[in-house]
Amino acid sequence: MPELKICLPGQRLCVKDETHHSGNGTYERQGYIYSNVAGVVDVVQKNNIKVIEVVNPDVQTIVPAHGDIVTAEVTIITQQYVKCLIKCIGNKLLKRHFKGVLRREDIRAAEKDRIEIFKCFRPGDIILARVMPITEAHVYQLSTAENELGVAIAHSEHGHPMVPISWIEMQCTKTYVKEPRKVARIIPEKIHNDIVNRLSEYLC
User: pTM of the prediction?
Assistant: First the structure.
């Protein structure tokens, strides 16, 4: 058992063998035991077997989990993926930001081989995305394939706010120049206002 005390979801803890078994807060995959939650690693001795568990500390750490809807800021785009910083989980602002990656094939549900990332996102965009199953520690894989997910807030190349005019375009409120985006289908106005209020400090 490695000298590991604090762990995040998806972090590999040790080998699964005859003397090391998976317990609460962990799961097994391909011969290893992984953490399923954020917390402190605890080893429970039962006869000759060590049961590996992860328990929550007294002060709960909020981290993204599989299926969560998160709000993130796009930082880098390439031809194959989008890198971003996760700043909210649901309606909760995070004190610590988490790294997220959105692969090209996870941007839309259809025509995945025809997607051009620069026509979907730009650095600085605020997006809504869903957390996918964790495959790598410390990096969260995201998806915007659902209609309700995608760009929620964006600014034009000149720094002016943009508004959606379709599900694939946004328009600058000052210059009226149109730019392509994968626009989130945010129907209730309250949801959009909540996002704007929560992230206003990042968009000053």
Answer: 0.64
Side chain identity, residue 183: V
Beta bridge partners of 37: none
**Structure tokens, 54:** 């992860």
Can you tell me which residue has the tokens 């390439």? 78
Q: Catalogue all structural domains in the chain, each as residue range(s) with its CATH number.
A: 6-55 (2.40.50.100), 69-202 (2.40.50.140)
Torsion (CA) 117, 119, 125, 130 in degrees, nearest 10: -50
Residue 141: what residue type?
Q
Integer-rounded Cα radius of gyration of the chain: 20
CA 101 to chain centre: 7
87-109 per-position pLDDT tens digit: 888 878 787 788 999 999 999 98
Give the residues across from 161 on adjacent strands.
Answer: 155
Give residue 129's identity as a one-letter amino acid code. A
Q: How many CB atoms lie within 10 A of CB 107?
A: 24
* Helix (H/G/I), strand (E/B), else coil: 80: coil
